[in-house]
From TrEMBL:
Signal peptide residue numbers: none
Hydrolase keyword on record: no
Domain annotation ABC-2 type transporter transmembrane: ranges: 20-173, 485-707
Record field: transmembrane: 21-40, 534-554, 574-594, 606-627, 634-653, 695-712
Main location, first listed in the record: membrane
Designated name of the protein: Phage infection protein
Organism listed in the record: Paenibacillus glycanilyticus
Keyword line: Membrane, Transmembrane, Transmembrane helix
Membrane-topology annotation of the record: Multi-pass membrane protein
Any Pfam family hit: ABC2_membrane_3
Localisation: Membrane
Length: 726
């Protein structure tokens, strides 16, 4: 066994005697420390210095007017940026920003357009527009800075959108409060309308009953007038005969004298009946005139009711349209944000606005039914008014005829009285009697004509009364519809008012609508420092690079003992490479932990894992260089390049090209990076040990391959030195 370390001892003695080799050894041992230390320190916390990154801000917003108040969202946004220290904000003109981007003085530019406030306040308009902020990154100058500034600007944009949403929500909820108050007043008015419609219905029923009684009385009067007309016709025929038979009358005066007393008595009764008929017709005309005046007032009231309901229907349509627009605005706001649309409070608000729109639509429908009923009522009133007017006209004609009849009766009675008083002279005045009979015949003709007119008036009275009764029935039906519609209207309005009143415009509700979903970050697996996240990649890279540099300074095959070969030479090289790897790992770990101050989950395991990773890379490099020498170093360089791309040290495995993903599980740097992440950040030591096992597997495989090279070269050398048998 001691003979096995003979070559290593000789190489070590040679090394200690050569100062240049010692200096070279020490220089190579700090290569990973220099490589990894500067890379990690240079990328220690770049995101903590974003306040040094100049970003231009251009505010072109001209402001706008919203709900009668001036607003300038761009100016408010600039004020917020001035209090924000995320970047080095430079508030410049559009020209200065353009020149700064071209000359690479600014890494990005944020431009607030001139119509920003106008678009921001257009949510409640017919054509809402998105309020855009123009972001331009100077990725030509530095790609990473462009990505960082873009992500930070998105966060600012989200905060600005939240502020705008809060303003919109506050405005809409205040409108809901006013809408609830208005709906309550409308519900009270609809209730009053219902009470009035019920009273109208009852009054119309009573009016219809009385008018039916009037129609029946008018029919009886018309029948009596027909009998009177027949009597007048017979009287007219008799008087005609009397006039034509004046001479016969003169010759039969004696007989007439006996009957004159009875004729005078009949004339007195006829005069009394005519007076009573005139008084009755006069009373009927006064009643008809009163009925006509009352119906004129009723018709005027119906017209006013129709006008009021027309205005109410227009207001209901306006309310329905406004409620529909409000529901559409809320739905659009929700649709613009998926989180906002999934929130229960927003869904409740949207359902309430849709219920208001439905109630407003029902209100409009009820108002239309009321308007239809009112128009039906007005038509009936017009019919009643027309019938009453006809009735009054007929009564006037009838009264005129009755007056004529009374005059004629008075003349008849006077004539009979004179005849009774002067009957002796009547005999001698037969000729005068003939003339009087002719006059009486003319008066009888007028009486017949007056009775005919009175009959026509009675017929008009009956027809008008019938029309009045029909119109009163329609009035009762319309009033019933008005009562039913107004009751449903009052109930719907009260329900809508109650639903809208349940929406409270407090700050908690407004903030809930503006930000319905909040993300609660779980920082258990968060790497807070960029250096901790990138260190596994840089440490692996540094150790691999240190291993490659070492093979350029020290031979992987030769020894100070020129006769050395086989296992002793292999052991000497293995120990030499192992000592260098150990030195590099310990120096690198110490500087990273105590000079740079990198925080890890376990210091002992960090040292141990760094040593194992150093051994892995060193023995992999040793194998290739031992077998192939300079071509082997080229292969190691290619291997390093492949590992830098395929190990997922910067971008996730899933974002790598297909060929890189295929190489990932076969390369040792993949497992060194995973294990470093466990010991530096996550503290998942079980997973770290599984990665350490894979690295140990690489160590064993490549140490065996290196030993195989020395075993084969010894065999070849022994065969060459073996004497040739003759």
């Amino acid at each position: 066994m001691a003979n096995s370390f003979r070559v290593f001892k000789k190489d070590l003695g040679y090394f200690l005697k050569n100062r240049m080799l010692i200096i070279t050894f020490l220089g190579v041992s700090i290569v990973p420390m220099l490589y990894g230390g500067f890379l990690i320190k240079g990328n220690w916390d770049p995101y903590g210095k974003l306040q040094n990154l100049p970003v231009a801000v251009v505010n072109l917003d001209k402001g706008a007017e919203y709900q009668g108040k001036a607003m300038n969202v761009g100016e408010d946004f600039v004020k917020e940026l001035k209090e924000n220290e995320t970047f080095d904000w430079r508030f410049v003109s559009e020209q200065a920003a353009r020149e700064g981007m071209v000359s690479n003085r600014y890494y990005a530019t944020i431009t607030i357009p001139d119509n920003f406030s106008e678009n921001a306040s257009s949510l409640t308009s017919d054509t809402p527009q998105k309020a855009d902020i123009i972001f331009e990154s100077n990725s030509f100058y530095n790609f990473i800075s462009g990505q960082i500034s873009e992500n930070a600007t998105k966060e600012l944009r989200n905060r600005l959108s939240q502020n705008l949403t809060e303003a919109y929500s506050r405005s809409m909820l205040s409108q809901f409060s006013e809408l609830s108050s208005g709906l309550s007043r409308l519900a009270a008015g609809a209730s009053d309308l219902h009470d009035g419609a019920v009273q109208l219905k009852n009054g119309a029923g009573t009016l219809s009953s009385k008018l039916q009684e009037l129609s029946g009385g008018a029919a009886k009067l018309n029948a009596s007038i027909g009998q009177l007309e027949n009597g007048a016709s017979e009287l007219n025929a008799g008087l005609s005969k009397l006039s034509s038979s004046a001479e016969t009358l003169s010759s039969g005066a004696s007989q007439l004298g006996a009957a004159s007393t009875q004729l005078k008595q009949g004339a007195d009764k006829l005069a009394d009946g005519s007076g009573q008929l005139k008084d009755g017709i006069q009373s009927a005309k006064s009643g008809a005139d009163d009925l006509y005046a009352g119906l004129q007032q009723s018709a005027a009231g119906s017209k006013q009711l129709e006008s009021g309901l027309t205005a109410s229907a227009a207001a209901s349509n306006t309310l329905a349209d406004g409620s529909a627009q409000l529901a559409a605005g809320l739905k659009q706001l929700a649709d613009s944000n998926a989180d906002l649309a999934a929130d229960p409070a927003v869904q409740k608000l949207l359902a309430a606005s849709q219920a208001v729109a439905a109630g407003a639509k029902e209100l409009s429908k009820g108002q239309q039914e009321l308007l239809t009923g009112s128009r039906t009522l007005n038509a009936g009133q017009q019919k009643l008014l027309a019938g009453s007017k006809q009735l009054s006209a007929g009564q006037s004609k009838l009264l005129q005829s009755a007056s004529q009849l009374a005059t004629a009766q008075d003349q008849l009675r006077d004539g009979l009285t004179q005849m009774a008083a002067k009957f002796p002279a009547f005999v001698s005045g037969g000729k005068q009697l003939g003339q009087g009979a002719a006059q009486l015949a003319q008066g009888s003709e007028k009486l017949k004509s007056g009775i005919s007119q009175f009959k026509a008036g009675g017929a008009s009275l009956a027809s008008g009364a019938s029309q009045l009764a029909s119109g009163a029935g329609e009035l009762a039906t319309g009033a019933d519809k008005v009562a039913a519609g107004s009751k449903q209207l009052a109930d719907n309005l009260a329900s809508a008012a109650e639903q809208t009143a349940s929406l409270k415009a407090d700050e908690k509700t407004i903030q809930m609508i503006a930000e319905p979903v909040t993300i609660v970050a779980n920082d258990d697996r968060k790497v807070r420092l960029y250096a901790n996240g990138i260190a596994p990649y840089f440490l692996s890279m540094a150790l691999f690079a240190g291993s490659l540099v070492f093979t350029t300074m020290f031979s992987a095959r030769r020894s100070a003992d020129e006769e050395a070969d086989g296992f002793p030479l292999f052991l000497s090289k293995l120990l030499t490479f192992g000592v260098m790897s150990l030195a590099q790992s310990l120096i690198l770990s110490t500087v990273i932990l105590y000079v740079l101050g990198l925080k890890v989950q376990s210091v002992p395991l960090f040292y141990l894992y760094t040593v194992l990773t150093g051994f892995t890379f060193m023995f992999v490099v040793q194998t290739f260089v031992t077998w192939l020498d300079n071509p082997g170093r080229f292969i190691v360089l290619l291997l390093m390049i492949f590992q830098l791309v395929s190990s997922a040290g910067t971008f996730p495995y899933e974002l790598l090209p297909g060929w890189a993903q295929a190489m990932n599980p076969w390369l040792p740097m993949t497992y060194s990076i995973r294990g470093y992440r466990d010991v530096i950040s996550s503290g998942d030591f079980a997973h770290m040990w599984s990665q350490a096992g894979r690295l140990a597997f690489y160590v064993v495989i490549f140490v065996l391959l290196t030993s195989l090279y020395f075993a084969l070269t010894k065999k070849q050398r022994d065969e060459q030195q073996m004497p040739v048998k003759i």
